[in-house]
Amino acid sequence: xxxxxxxxxxxxxxxxxxxxxxANCTHSRLAxxxxxxxxxxxxxxxxxxxxxxxxxxxxxxxxxxxxxxxxIVYVCLPNSMHAEYTIRAARAGKxxxxxxxxxxxxxxxxxxxxxxRAANRKLMxxxxxxxxxxxxEAMRLARTGAAGKVRYVRSEHGFVQRDPSRWRLKRALxxxxxxMDMGIYSLQAARYMTGEEPIAVTARESTDRRDPxxxxxxxxxxxxxxxxxxxxxxxxxxYSANQNHILLMGDAGRVELEPATRYDGNHMWVGKDGRxxxxxxxxxxxxxxxxxxxxxxxxxxxxxxxxxxxxxxxLRDMRxxxxxxxxxxxxxxxxxxxxx
Length: 340
Ligand code: NAD
Known about the structure:
Blueprint: E1 3-8, H1 14-21, E2 28-34, H2 38-47, E3 55-56, E4 72-75, H3 82-91, E5 95-98, H4 106-118, E6 123-125, H5 133-143, E7 150-158, H6 171-174, H7 178-194, E8 200-206, E9 220-226, E10 232-238, E11 243-250, E12 253-257, E13 268-272, E14 275-278, H8 289-303, H9 311-330, E15 334-335
Parallel strand pairs: 1-2, 1-4, 2-3, 4-5, 5-6, 7-10
Antiparallel strand pairs: 7-11, 8-9, 8-15, 9-10, 11-12, 12-13, 13-14
Helix pairs in contact: 3-4, 4-9
Bound molecules: nicotinamide-adenine-dinucleotide (NAD).
Nicotinamide-adenine-dinucleotide (NAD) binds next to loops.
């Protein structure tokens, strides 16, 4: 049977994006909902034919342990709640898919990995771009040398935050500003396009603290990563402009995606030897990146393999995120490889 997911947090992503995607899945289905809004939970459950016993509030969430229909808990809550619900889900004997950013600190990521390990449960991060056809094709082209030796990656992600009351602008819930949200895409792109782990980071921040949106978290953050091969990545995130871009330069050409990491409508070009062509990748391995992500984890749970974007991958990003913030704060380059 397809494995059952419980969606925790019926917000714009959990309810608006993920739940409709079960229709495109082969190995996954919606099995339960967890919400602080009983009327909403009841309505969503009814729409999807779920029994009343598969509706949970945050307070009685731990009862999910007794629900054999639920194999996987998918945490779609504000960032600072990821660790708590991942750990509670693992203790309830469920595998966990957790949204990005994995959590708001390295310490939380480590606690999440430890809890899943102790319960012998799997943990995956909702890094959907690893299932998005253009990003997959760009990774393949980078690895096979289509642009020559990779020398430089640039990635910028951002959108305009308009409402100062949103949780994304409250540090206690978000853990940080644009870096914790869209910056994760730029950071991920730098790592999956180069296929390397950075050895040094230099960052700076620009935030108008008089702007009521940015009293608690950063607006623009800009950072450079150095890689062992000598490649460099120049990354950015912001909450005051829309941008969504990945550029990879090799010594023989380039691969460019813009928009790069949207839910749909991404575009990609490859330039080599002075010739430029737009790439229309063959349909990806799944109907959509979301179905690919959901079915991948169901398959991992079924077969016992690790997810390609496991908790370790989220932890690697969070270590770099902490270094980016620290570098911006201290105004200096930080080594990430333990050398001084
Ligand atoms: P949202 O504000 O639309 O939804 C958040 C949900 O959490 C709501 O149902 C809300 O009621 C619930 N919630 C519970 N306690 C809350 C509290 N104390 N304060 C605020 N909300 C509370 O947010 P979203 O856009 O759905 O984001 C949820 C998570 O999903 C975030 O971690 C975000 O980074 C991630 N996300 C990922 C993607 C992606 O493409 N992978 C896209 C959007 C969001």
